[in-house]
């Protein structure tokens, strides 16, 4: 928030320039490492570790950053552009290129300000989206606008475009057995790193396992935690579970009851998304965030917990589906596919 944290940020010689969206959680240790190598820092901003980190490590700086980020760095000496997106793609980053230009942005809307950018719909991506509920790979709904993939950086130098992966999710290894102590420590460390903030901080608390675990670990480092829950004033609201956790950890708890006419907000939600998002919770989450922003500017949430820990009921069907593979081909194709189509 300080003036010295303003962007774009430069190095001392003004020949390395960066713009950055996100947060680097390991910036204190990275900063110490760079100071020992002779770099001088002008601010306490995490943005500055990207500038000096690039001076020291070049493109390999991406591998050293731990956090959520999308950044663009211009090397004036080499006339080289580097744009990068964090390991699992928390922060968005889009681009358009043709033989004359290369445009990049955190939002597709900004790219479309250039009226020469084609507006054609990617029909294959549309079909994939209707079946899978998300856009596959680097595609978007615009045929000529692409996403920088998670854990990937792109360089653009002397008209040459190069794409390189700096991170891949580790392969599943059945020899590694789940250990609740190890998992608990990993979650605790993840929560602790995210508490470094120069603005008020809270938690989206549903009372489910994921958000409750975050509050439990957060209570080890903070005395007064601000928690927020959303409901619609209905019998099956989760508010009672959130209250139980709020009482157990003595949080400053606020319940937000939404009007049932939430669909009136759909046009605004769609405007903020650059691609269709097939998530019914998008509207209540938007309204919750809008209300919570009056009290805090940063929240931790349990988003992603179901994906990491197999929390979707459909995953329980996988062993049964595998048994179907052993049935004769004609039975699978003719009988089962006909049943599936009729359903």
Ordered list of secondary-structure elements with their pairings:
Blueprint: E1 9-10, E2 16-24, H1 27-36, H2 47-57, H3 61-64, E3 67-75, E4 80-85, E5 94-97, E6 102-105, H4 108-111, H5 123-132, E7 145-147, E8 152-157, E9 160-165, H6 180-193, E10 201-204, H7 209-218, E11 226-231, H8 239-248, E12 252-257, H9 266-272, H10 282-292, E13 298-300, H11 305-309, H12 318-324, H13 329-342
Parallel strand pairs: 10-11, 10-13, 11-12
Antiparallel strand pairs: 1-2, 2-3, 3-4, 4-8, 5-6, 5-7, 8-9
Helix pairs in contact: 1-2, 6-7
Structural summary, described in words:
34% of the residues lie in helices and 20% in strands. It has helices at residues 27-36, 47-57, 61-64, 108-111, 123-132, 180-193, 209-218, 239-248, 266-272, 282-292, 305-309, 318-324, 329-342, and strands at residues 9-10, 16-24, 67-75, 80-85, 94-97, 102-105, 145-147, 152-157, 160-165, 201-204, 226-231, 252-257, 298-300. The longest helix has 14 residues, at 180-193. The model has no long low-confidence stretch (mean pLDDT 90).
């Amino acid at each position: 928030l300080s003036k010295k944290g303003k962007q774009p940020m430069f190095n001392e010689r003004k020949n390395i320039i960066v713009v950055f969206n996100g947060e680097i959680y390991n910036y204190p240790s990275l900063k110490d490492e760079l100071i020992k190598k002779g770099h001088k820092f002008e601010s306490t901003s995490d943005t500055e570790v990207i500038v000096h980190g690039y001076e020291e490590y070049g493109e390999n700086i991406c591998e050293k950053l731990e956090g959520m980020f999308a950044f663009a760095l211009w090397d004036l000496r080499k006339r080289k552009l580097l744009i990068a997106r964090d390991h699992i793609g928390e922060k968005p980053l889009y681009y358009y290129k043709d033989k004359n230009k290369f445009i990049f942005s955190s939002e597709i809307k900004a790219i479309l300000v250039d009226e020469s950018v084609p507006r054609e719909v990617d029909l294959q991506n549309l079909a994939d989206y209707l079946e899978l509920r998300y856009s596959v790979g680097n595609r978007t709904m615009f045929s000529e606008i692409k996403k920088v993939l998670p854990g990937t950086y792109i360089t653009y130098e002397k008209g040459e475009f190069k794409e390189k992966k700096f991170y891949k999710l580790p392969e599943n290894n059945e020899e590694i057995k789940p250990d609740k102590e190890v998992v608990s420590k990993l979650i605790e460390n993840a929560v602790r790193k995210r508490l470094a903030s120069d603005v008020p901080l809270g938690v989206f608390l549903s009372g489910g396992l994921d958000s409750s675990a975050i509050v439990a670990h957060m209570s080890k480092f903070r005395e007064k935690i601000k928690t927020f829950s959303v409901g619609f004033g209905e019998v099956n609201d989760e508010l009672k579970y959130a209250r139980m956790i709020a009482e157990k950890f003595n949080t400053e708890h606020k319940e937000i009851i939404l009007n049932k006419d939430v669909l009136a907000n759909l046009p605004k939600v769609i405007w903020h998304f650059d691609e269709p998002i097939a998530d019914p919770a998008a509207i209540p989450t938007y309204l919750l965030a809008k209300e919570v922003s009056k009290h805090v500017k940063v929240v931790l949430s349990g988003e992603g917990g179901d994906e990491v820990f197999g929390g979707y009921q459909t995953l329980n069907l996988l062993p049964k589906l595998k048994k179907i593979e052993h049935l004769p081909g004609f039975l699978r194709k003719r009988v089962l596919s006909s049943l599936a189509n009729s359903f």
